[in-house]
Amino acid sequence: MVFVFMVVTILNDQIGHLVNLANMNGVPAMPTVFVHGFPETPEVWEPLLVELERIAPARPGPIRLSPPGFGAPLPAGFGATVDDYRDWLIGELERFAEPVDLVGHDWGGVHTLNAVMARPDLVRSWVSDVIGLFDPDYVWHEFALSQQAPESTGPDPAVPLGPDLAMRVAMLVKFGMSEPVATRVAAGQDEAMGRAAHALYRSAAQPVMAELGRNLERAAQRPGLALLATEDLLVGTNEQRSRTARLAGAGTATLDGLGHWWMTQDPGRGAQVLTDFWDSLDR
């Protein structure tokens, strides 16, 4: 049933994209593709997408891609490693007839950069809010370190943030997600997400991220934007984020006072930053 829902969602997104293109009156525009992370489902983008539609109704309809295990089925045999998710995203981007404007949040921001470094031809531009994770001095946060510990043999807990829905919602709100979005996201958290997250974090234990960061200059082949939410304490220091942005040839946009889930805290500001970036490429 989940698979059927996912297929319908993708088809609807694609149809919306084509309809919007037809309404552009000959003005070229790129598809916009959004990729989320952990412990999230595609619903995390909803407030931002509403604002994007309000600010720039003529842009192609946004397309949300759910990484396996994170709001999408976790296929049998899928390793859920950093490399596996890079290859998954590359495969998804190859389906488009033209390069896309790619936006990644949390692990989606890691997948975005890894895909762009490997296949810059698949995007017109990229945006990531976690570029600091590629800095050689980055230290993983407490949850990641617990998953990466040698004695960690499985996801803890099996369902991210606990088995009780109300408790999961409260935890997401405590961490900064708006309650309406938290309610929808928490409903999509399951055991498969826990397994995928465990494998993903373990595959990215240092020095893996630092080694990936050595290739950041390849991302400079396409225009990039690093979002710097000042209250996001999970994605590296300001110095680390600024340094890696320079290596990737990316501009920066500071989101003062916003945290990890900036797209639910102030979606209007986030939408304006993205629209301004894309508009700069159209000039």
Describe what you observe in this structure.
It is built from twelve helices and six strands. The protein is 46% helix and 10% strand. With 283 residues, the chain is of the alpha/beta class. The chain has helices at 2-22, 46-55, 82-93, 107-118, 142-148, 165-175, 179-187, 191-203, 208-213, 238-247, 262-265, 267-282; strands at 32-35, 63-65, 100-104, 123-128, 224-229, 251-255. The chain is globular and about 50 Å long. The model is unreliable at 1-28 (pLDDT under 50).
Name its key features.
single chain; 46% helix; 12 helices; 283 residues; alpha/beta; disordered N terminus; globular; six-stranded parallel sheet
Helix percentage range:
40-55%
Beta strand count: 6
Secondary structure class reads alpha/beta
Number of helices: 12
- Along the chain, the helix and strand elements come as HEHEHEHEHHHHHEHEHH
- Rg over CA atoms, rounded to whole Å, is 18 Å
Strand proportion, as a percent range, falls in 5-15%
Global shape? globular
Largest sheet, strands/sense/barrel: 6 strands, parallel
Query: What order do the strands of the largest sheet run in, or round the barrel if closed?
Result: 2-1-3-4-5-6
